[in-house]
Write a structure and sequence with these properties.
Largest sheet: 2 strands, antiparallel
Shape: extended
Helix content: 55-70%
Structural class: mainly alpha
Oligomer: single chain
Distance between the termini: 46 Å
Order of helices and strands: HEEHH
Length: 97
């Protein structure tokens, strides 16, 4: 695992980085209108192995992977005797009528 995967950043630095990444995601989403997500992307894994996947495949992984980790954290919190937070994505966006 690369040493810089979990840097010791201040809260301000984390917020700035999140804002920068939000802007980058906007560009990725906009590109879906032109190629439908079928554009191939070459990349290297953390072990240095090279792969190619479509943008659609990568985005599917990204969205599902975060769900996987939210579930892991919720289970660990309950096992430690705590009360899990509401982590369902829809709960963060829904509006009551």
């Amino acid at each position: 695992m690369p040493k810089d995967w979990f840097p010791s950043w201040t809260t301000e630095r984390i917020r700035a980085e999140a804002k920068r990444l939000d802007g980058a995601w906007s560009g990725v989403v906009a590109s879906l209108a032109t190629d439908g997500g079928e554009r191939e992307v070459m990349y290297s894994s953390s072990e240095g192995r090279r792969f190619v996947s479509t943008l659609h495949e990568i985005l599917t992984h990204v969205f599902n992977h975060s769900t996987y980790h939210r579930g892991q954290v919720a289970r660990l919190v309950v096992e430690a005797g705590g009360t899990r937070a509401d982590t369902d994505a829809i709960l963060m966006t829904r509006r009551e009528l």
